[in-house]
Design brief:
Layout (H helix, E strand, L loop, with lengths): L2 E6 L4 H11 L4 E4 L11 H12 L5 E6 L3 H7 L7 E3 L3 H11 L3 E5 L5 H13 L6 H7 L4
Parallel strand pairs: 1-2, 1-3, 3-5, 4-5
Helix pairs in contact: 1-5, 2-3, 4-5
GO biological process, one term: D-allose catabolic process
Keywords: Isomerase
EC number: 5.3.1.6
Length: 142
């Protein structure tokens, strides 16, 4: 069973809880917080989640904040993380197929709950195509 890290801030809390419930029984989900609607600083939760994917403790990750930007930027500071900000299903599929993204960032204030679940499902179900894309992915790290 694939292991999934999940984290977000107060703006993403309700979506995080919804996604966790949606993934029950299909994946092993490790919740890095936040655990309430109280205002928090997203890096406090994103860095541990990203580290867990980077070190292989989790296979992939899901991050949620209001715009998706802050969590994505933070996760991408980690050398082995490729976090894609997705607001459409096709973006999630392409991020996996072409970029071998290992984390997805969702903008809770800009997508519906239903769309968030569809994006997560597509992200987790789509495989990296490799081939011509592998050479490009190999050049991403500094």
């Amino acid at each position: 069973m694939k292991k999934i890290a999940i984290a977000g801030d107060h703006a993403g809390f309700e979506y995080k809880e919804l996604i966790k419930k949606h993934l029950e029984g299909k994946f092993e989900v490790q919740d890095f917080g936040t655990h309430s609607l109280d205002s928090v600083d997203y890096p406090d939760f994103v860095h541990p989640a990203a580290s867990s994917v980077e070190n292989g403790e989790n296979d992939m990750g899901i991050l949620i904040c209001g715009s998706g930007q802050g969590v994505s930027i933070t996760a991408n500071k980690h050398q082995k993380i490729r976090c894609a900000l997705c607001w459409e299903v096709e973006l999630a599929q392409l991020a996996r197929q072409h970029n071998n993204a290992n984390m997805v960032a969702l903008p809770a204030r800009f997508i519906s709950e239903d769309l968030a679940l569809k994006i997560v499902d597509a992200f987790l179900a789509t495989e990296f195509e490799g081939g011509r894309h592998q050479n490009r992915v190999d050049k991403i790290g500094c």
